[in-house]
Amino acid sequence: MTSDSKQVVSYDQDGHVVTLTLRRPEARNAINGDVAEQLEAALDRYEADDQAWVAILTGEGTVFCAGADLKEIAAGNARRLSTKRGGFAGFVMRERTKPVIAAINGPAHAGGCEITLACDLVVAADNANFAVPEVKRALIAAAGALWRLPRAVGPAKAAEMIMTGDPISASEALEAGLVNQVVPGAQLLTAARALADRIAVNAPLAVQASRMVSVQAFDLDIAEMAKASGQAMQQMMGTDDFKEGPRAFIEKRAPKWQGR
Questions:
Q1: Which of 14, 31, 106, 259 is at a distance of 20 to 30 A from 225, taking alpha carbons?
Q2: pLDDT tens digits, residue range 82-118?
Q3: What residues contact 235, with CB distance under 8 A and at least 6 apart?
């Protein structure tokens, strides 16, 4: 973070769970250069910490993220909204090993919807909604929605969202498969944390390896997926946690994962 920029992405850790919060509520958490830079840095920190196993990404205020900051674009700073490694917001194209849960506290539009699609799981407040309205402004949803949305909600619903630009409600998103849970707004972070804890109780390296294989499901054929699964299993067999799992089962106790 440069000396003249403020903190617009916070990083809070409680046990093995990290919460990342977009903090530009006055701008509907729109992505500017500072957000992109700080969100990428937060992901670097999360990925590097062996004791950080699950992350929650949310927004401050009543909007999750309104997408790109149009004032930045008008000022000729469009390139600052992306990073070399992470793409838009320093996030949507970022290669990572660990799971991220989106906790959607309000509208997730344009790039905000694309950030949501780049997460692994989604918990939404009942007042949230999702849209890729770029066509309404002669723009293209170029940060992942055009290929991730059909995979998330199916081709018919995705075509409707992409070509009309109209939003869908949290309940519609749940029915379509974009969202895992819909809860009252006051319960959002509690529900997201409960989901994170359900993940964090498992062996972290096994979660990471399983995630890395599963995210390739739409890109590889069955033989390639079988090979990737086998390779992941071989890697797990060389870890201390691989020995701990069966040992804890035999001894009828909760496993003590070390992440190595």
A1: 259
A2: 999 999 999 999 999 999 999 999 999 999 999 999 9
A3: 209
Q: How far apart are CA 29 and CA 66, in angstroms?
A: 6
Phi and psi torsions of 101, nearest 5°: -100, 125
Q: How far apart are CA 245 and CA 110, in angstroms?
A: 43
pTM for the model stands at 0.93
The count of C-alpha atoms lying within 13 angstroms of the C-alpha of 127, restricted to the half-sphere facing its C-beta, is: 11
Residue 197 to residue 230: CA distance in whole angstroms: 27
* Contact present, 144 and 115 (Cβ < 8 Å): no
What are the two backbone dihedrals, phi and then psi, of residue 21, each rounded to the nearest 5 degrees? -125, 125
- For residue 134, indicate whether it is catalytic: yes
Among residues 37, 40, 72, 134, the one annotated as catalytic is 134
224 is a catalytic site residue: no
Q: What is d(CA 213, CA 60) in angstroms, rounded to the nearest whole number?
A: 32
Given a contact cutoff of 8 angstroms between Cβ atoms, the answer to whether 128 and 107 are in contact is: yes
